[in-house]
Amino acid sequence: MATGGKGVLGFIGFWAFIVGLIIAVVAGLVRPDNSTIIVILVILGIIIGLLNITAKEFMLFLLAAIALIVAGNAFAAIGAVGAKVGDVLNYIVALMSPAAIIAAIKALWAVGKPGE
Asked: Could you read off the pLDDT of 86-106 as tens digits, one per residue?
């Protein structure tokens, strides 16, 4: 995630990403399936998608987001530890899904924009 060249907005987007990851990990271990935490993560994900994802990062970001979304529940079969890892991943998915949607829309806009 790029922060250079965007000034204060890039800095805010970077910290939204860091804070979101910290919340996702801690909440996944302590408070799984909490709707208030999910709403906070979705709001942070929107901020990340709007402020942080550059055209150069679209493909890598979308690939990573898809991998997280697909792997979200794969660890549940491992047992208690796998369930905790799954809870953390579910919160990370809640953080990254809005950012991925915004990045995909930005990518479609860039592709469909006339005159380029």
From this structure: 889 989 999 999 998 998 888
